Structure formats: structure tokens, C-alpha cells
Amino acid sequence: MTPTALARIALGWLAEPGTWTVYWLVRRHGPLAALERLLAGEVADPALRASVAARLAAGDPRAAAEAAAEHTVRLGARLVTPEDPDWPPRLADLERLWGRPAQRRVDRELAPPLCLWLRGGWPLHDVLDRSVAVVGSRAATPYGSHVAAEIGCGLAERGWTVVSGGAFGIDADAHRGALGAGGPTVAVLACGVDRPYPVGNTALFDRIAEGGLLVSEWPPGAAPLRPRFLTRNRVIAAATVGSVLVEAAARSGATQTLGRALALGRTAMVVPGPVTSAMSVGAHELLRKYPESRLVAGVPHILEEVGRIGEDLAPVPRGPDDPRDRLDDEAALLLEAVPLRGALDVEQLAARAGVDLRTVLRKVPLLEDLGLLVRTDAGYALAPRRPRRADLT
Amino acid sequence: MTPTALARIALGWLAEPGTWTVYWLVRRHGPLAALERLLAGEVADPALRASVAARLAAGDPRAAAEAAAEHTVRLGARLVTPEDPDWPPRLADLERLWGRPAQRRVDRELAPPLCLWLRGGWPLHDVLDRSVAVVGSRAATPYGSHVAAEIGCGLAERGWTVVSGGAFGIDADAHRGALGAGGPTVAVLACGVDRPYPVGNTALFDRIAEGGLLVSEWPPGAAPLRPRFLTRNRVIAAATVGSVLVEAAARSGATQTLGRALALGRTAMVVPGPVTSAMSVGAHELLRKYPESRLVAGVPHILEEVGRIGEDLAPVPRGPDDPRDRLDDEAALLLEAVPLRGALDVEQLAARAGVDLRTVLRKVPLLEDLGLLVRTDAGYALAPRRPRRADLT
Prior knowledge:
2 copies of one chain form a homodimer. Chain A has helices at about 5-15, 20-40, 45-60, 60-75, 125-130, 140-155, 170-180, 200-210, 225-240, 255-265, 280-290, 300-315, 330-335, 345-355, 355-370, 390, and strands spanning about 80, 115-120, 130-135, 160-165, 185-190, 210-215, 240-245, 265-270, 295, 375, 380.
């Protein structure tokens, strides 16, 4: 591990990730000089000086960093820092939140992470490039679980990465959906990547490490302390193109993630539910509170929202002969509703695309003519063609 | 019946209600002179001249009007015209839609009604003054039926009139809810007020005629022709302060009523539902399409929306000693959630008000101190006081 990387680990050991003074010191002087200044007590903030002094009384930051680096290698984990080409550039957007009051429990928004630990083989930047956060309640209802799994599956089928936490309920359902469709999926943890929390999700974490990535800004062995979940949430909001809330009780942590996504200029998407369900109160609250938030009823709506933004950020070059360019909105929506594998009948198509049956019956012949859809015994399926997936990931 | 009223009936017999040329003739020259001109063929529009000529070949408009007037009296029904103080002033807002393309099936928006037939004893203007339209699908799910009945009941409990059509499903559920709470409720029909359609709702229509009003712009005996339902919808949108959509399939007639409510400057409110339900597709579509539309999860949200507007339109004078004036938004919302009759425990209160339990526990002591709430064995109930209902209706 480079001295720079070791200095970043040491800084995280001296002050909890998210500390602005440390972040700006690193931005101005680099990690090595920033560590020197912190160790020399050369910081204006007396509270930070005091907490650093307390940490120094308990141990040596450089030795702790060396130990964490060894531990990382021993686990087969890796460290990624802003000096690496694999660092996700979107995380720097968190700088915009500097000085902003946070929504609750934490007084102020927190600084971007100093470094990230990873478990899993995928390249971080590539995996996050086209990614959507799926967040929601731990106490999901069967309805919420079903919708989260469908969204996870549908996003993965279309080459989008799911990003979530590691909790029971919506987080786990979204990951399972994505893994079922071949992933990748990313769990951002509030503890070390070697420390499954909750323990009941251990098998899921192992599957995610194989078919995606476990990510944390705390070193291996770090405990899932309560405030770390809120700190962690900002990474989920910042690393993705947009966030989808599936189910949330009134004023839950997940609604806070959506609020932060909006503050970062991301798309905040909300799946509604029955008004008779306490688990949808937070979702409806959000849609009422933020006029910029978007109601989404499924993957076609989500792709409509993030697809637009994804293209703004990184235009995908396309040959002029792509028949998809000739589709109107309804036909495009319909085509997005067809899974990469398997077939659907017209009613299933209508339901998945969220359009009525007449529209399906009117548009399907056009899609057949353009060679995009084929009729099979089991219903309509995507026509075999050059794999589109490769363009997307 | 006055000659003016008879002229209006004759005009409606000569040309289907909603015809702009007839409406503007009446506005400029009065009903009697407008009828003379139409009978003399003095109209520029050749299509209207031709259809009037065809009607004249089939009968005498003045005799038809006399017959309709007698029929009306015989039934115990009444006619209301813009010359009466009981005419609802909001209907004139439909003039604003002149020349606007309509949303579907009809090419253009239609003119305000020329006159209205009523069955039931309530004064029309008073009943509509504080009214909310509740519209939705005929093929309602049990979820939609439950929500529509709850909304009908909750609005009636708080002195608001429900306005809807006469169809099965959401229309009927909203009326039943309102009647159960003591009404009044108003059904606007696409046929004569003596002609129950659908026949299966006959008993409901009789109850509405007793506890509210049946309203139609077609004379007794008129048949429920298909285009009349869309013509009728504009009265529902225009006569009310706002419209609530409970359940609708993709692009249904009910979503069109909401679009027209928005065009008229009314509040368009939408109850979301499970995204897995085809009967909520239209509701979600609407929330996505119109950023001005408002998601509502129940009566407290509806009152929040229309209450504001209702106060803008007609400020309710209040003594300075009303303790309600001292409530913050959350306490007011909570108080609105308490039914006029019966009691609720804190969890039911939280669910109905759409706030979390902690808020209820924090605000309830304040409401008790102000003498607005009392604790009973069955839970919290409104404190006995001067009836508030009288101020509202």
C-alpha cells in the first residue's frame, strides 16, 4: 500500500470519516502533509484538536494504519482512494453540501469519504457508473419486498447496478433481485467489510462479494455504530445517478437519503403504496414534501428518469442506424419493459410498461417491423441482436 | 316556470348542452332572444344551423319545453338556472376553457350548462359551496372502495359535500361513505334525474335524493347516452373546490376529470395505490404527468389542500378566542383526524393524521389543555363544544 493510502487510513483513524476540516486539509495539502498537520495539532478547530489528542493517547495512528493495511490484504479485501483511477468521481459532489444543515439527527452534512474498503472483484468506478440506489424500510411488507426485488431484478437485467445498504427488508430484497438477474449489486456498509451486519444477512453478503461489491469507509473490524448508518447514507446518495425509495415509515432514515440525493442534484424517485399501509407513509410524505421528487411505478419509469440523466452525464454514442432512435415514447417504454430473457404476453407487457392494452396492441407491430421484438410461443421477446448490455456497462 | 327558464329548456332541446354558440348567444342576448335567433336560423355556424333544422323537423321546441316543465313538477323535481340565486357561481369558470382542446374523445372543451334539474331538497349553491369531487373507476378494487368510502365519510363528518357521478365502484362508495356520516352528497348524472342509471344503483339514488341532491343538465326522461358522461364530467370538475381521484386504470375518464379540474384552477388530488394494481396505473400516471397535482393519503391531506383554497375563496370569520387559531400545523392536522363521533387511540390517530406516533404523543397534551380533545375510555375524542358544523355548511 502506498504511503498516501496509509496516510488516508491514519486520518480516518484519528477523526471519524466525514470530518470537513480533515477533508479540506487533505484537499489543500495532500494526505501526507494533512496527517503531519493533524499530528502536530496545527488545526484551528479546538474540538477536533481535542479529539485527535484523545485518539493519540490511545495509540499510534501510523501503526494502526499499517495493521489495517495488513488486515485488508489478509482478508482479500482492497482499498480504493481518490488517487486511484477506480475512485468514483461522483463522491466529490458531496463537497457541495459543505455547511448545509442536515435533515435530522446530524447537525450538518458530512464531508466525502477519505478512502473506501472493498470486498469483491468488480472495478468500483465501472460498477457505479450506471447505478441506482434502492432504499427503504427494514420492516418491509410483502408488497414492498416484492416491488424491491422486481426493481433490483429489472435494473440488473438492463445493465444497471443496484446500490443499497445491508439491512433486512428493502435493502436485502433489492440485492437479491439484482443477484437473481446476474447482478452486479453493491452494498455500502456502516462497518468493516469483513463484519457482516446484521448477522442474519451473512450468506447474502457472501453472495454480494461474489456477484458485486461490499463497500465501506471504515476499516476491517470496525463496528456498526449507530451514527455510522447516517454517515454511510450519503455515500449511497452520492455514488448513484438517482435513488429509489420503496417503503418507509414516517420520517425514516431512508427518506433522509432521498432528501440528500435531491440536495446533490440526483433524481429522487419514490414508489407509492396503499395509503392504508403505515410502511408507505414516509414514501407519500416525501412525494408531498418535495415537488422535485418523482413517483415511479416500476423499472420503466426509473429508466425514464435516470436514463435521461445518465445520458446528460455521459452521452452514449450511437450509430444513426439504430432502429431504437426511431421509437416514440410509448414504443420505447414498451421495449424497455421486455426482459432480456424470457417472453411476456400483451397483458403482462401492458402491466410492466404501465400503459394500457390498446397501446400495446398498437405499438407491438411497429416493434416487430423494426426487428426489435419477436413473437414466440410464450409471448413477445426481445429479438436476438448484437448484445446491448455491453454498451451499457 | 318562467319564460326564461322555458327558453333555456328549449335551447337544450334544440342543441346538446355544452354548445358554445348557443351559450354565447344566451350570454349576449338572454335566453329568450337567443331562442328566437336560433329558431330563425340566425347563427353563423352551418353545422349548428343544420342540426337545429333537423330537430325542428322532429318537433316543436316550445311544446317540448312545456312538456319537460310539467314532467319536472310531476316528479317533484326542480329546475335551477343562472337567473336563480341558487345557481352555483363556479360553473361560469368553464367559460375559461372556451377554445381549449379537450384531452380525448371530445375535440374541444364544452360550454357551461344552460340549466340544471335537481331531485332532493337541499339548496344547490349552499351544498356545493364547500364541496370536493371524488371520482374513480367503476371496477374499483376492495382497496379503492375502502378508501373512497373513508374519504366520503371523512369529508361529510367535517361538513364538506361529496360530489361524484352515479356509477358503480368509486362513485357509489364515496356517496355511501358520505351518507353514512349524515351527508350531504351530490350525484351529477348523464341522464334524467328520474332515470336511475345504472339500474343497480336505484336504491342509492333514492337515498341521495333524500340526503343530498341528484343533478342533471338533461331533462327528466333523457337517456344516458355515451358522450353525455364526458359532457357531465366538466360539471363535477367545475362545481367543486377540488377533485380527488381514488382509483383509475390507464387513461380513464376519471383522469380526464382531474385534468379539467387543473385547467379550471382547481386542486387535483390523487390517492396512490399499490404499483402492482392495474387500477392505480391511471392515478400514478396523473401524478407523473401533472406536477401541479397533489398526492393525498386521506382526508387530512384533502382538507389541507382544499381548506387553503376554500379560505382564499371565502374567508370564514372567526372570533379571536378560538383556540384552534393557536394550533401549529401538526396539531391542526391531528385535530382534523378526530371524527365528530367516536374516539380513537393514539395509533389510530397517527394513522389517520398521517403523522408518526411521537408527534401524536407530543401534541395530544396540548390539544387537551386547549379543551379541544378529551380522553375517554375508548381513546381520544373531540371535546363537547358549540357545534362547529354550523359554521361550515
